[in-house]
Amino acid sequence: MSRERVVLVTGGNRGIGRAIAERFVADGYSVAVTARSGEGPAGTLTVRADVTDGAALDAAYSEVEQKLGPIGIVVANAGITKDTLLLRMSEDDFDSVVSTNLGGAFRVVKRAAKGMLRAKWGRVILISSVVGLYGSAGQINYSSSKSALVGFARSLTRELGSRGITANVVAPGFIETDMTAALPDETQADYKKNIPAARFGSAEEVAAAVAWLASDDAAYISGAVIPVDGGLGMGH
């Protein structure tokens, strides 16, 4: 069945999004990624779109549908950070992060929902973060946008759950990416002290959880938050 299914991963040109796209390609899906710059992994269709731009997203969707077919699985992964403490955080620091991380998920999922309703089948997977529910000093904008995805998935489940459509959240913890690699060794060691698994996760481990939620094995799971964090969040 996977060969007939089309996946769209936003922000699929690097990091966790790229690993998710690679996993879907390996599993035999038709895969498209949105990217503001750069290219998705081999075997994917890259479309140019910024998730804050509804018109660009519309055009990207039309291109994917024309070349690959109706999109049945959407992974809303595109996100940004603008970290600073509350008293130093500008309105733009707050608004731009929320517009990308939360507003982007809204725009992407709304556009996909029409096709899913026609097909009476769909998978919506929102990439959140352990800090969405755990909290993180200096990340009021980011953690707010990421915790909001839980309410989004649960409300969407109540709206569309009877139509064969599921909506779930994956909440990664500290994952080995360019961002964590740039941290000083002492900082990395400090973070690892708080993680019961005593290591950072891999992007492939996040991708495995996403692939499972997209599969028929997870058809009766909706509105769930799946942590991939080595025990850091402990159900927060």
Can you tell me about this structure?
With 236 residues, the chain is an alpha/beta fold. It is 44% helix and 17% strand. The protein has nine helices and seven strands. Strands 3-2-1-4-5-6-7 form a seven-stranded parallel β-sheet, with helices on both faces. α3 packs parallel to α6 (140-160). It starts with 5 loop residues before the first strand and ends in an 8-residue tail after the last strand. 45% of the residues are buried.
Number of strands: 7
Structural class: alpha/beta
Instruction: Tell me the β content.
Output: 15-25%
Please state the overall shape, judged from the principal axes of the Cα atoms: globular
Helix count from the secondary structure assignment: 9
Question: What distance separates the N and C termini?
Answer: 35 Å
User: Main sheet?
Assistant: 7 strands, parallel
Mean pLDDT equals: 95
Instruction: Kindly report the spatial arrangement of strands forming the biggest sheet.
Output: 3-2-1-4-5-6-7
Order of helices and strands: EHEEHEHHEHHEHHHE
The value of Rg in angstroms is 17 Å
**Spans of at least 5 consecutive residues with low confidence:** none
Percent range for helical residues? 40-55%
Give a topology summary:
Layout: E1 6-10, H1 15-26, E2 30-35, E3 44-48, H2 54-67, E4 71-76, H3 91-101, H4 103-119, E5 122-127, H5 131-134, H6 140-160, E6 165-172, H7 178-181, H8 185-193, H9 203-214, E7 225-228
Parallel strand pairs: 1-2, 1-4, 2-3, 4-5, 5-6, 6-7
Helix pairs in contact: 1-9, 2-4, 3-6
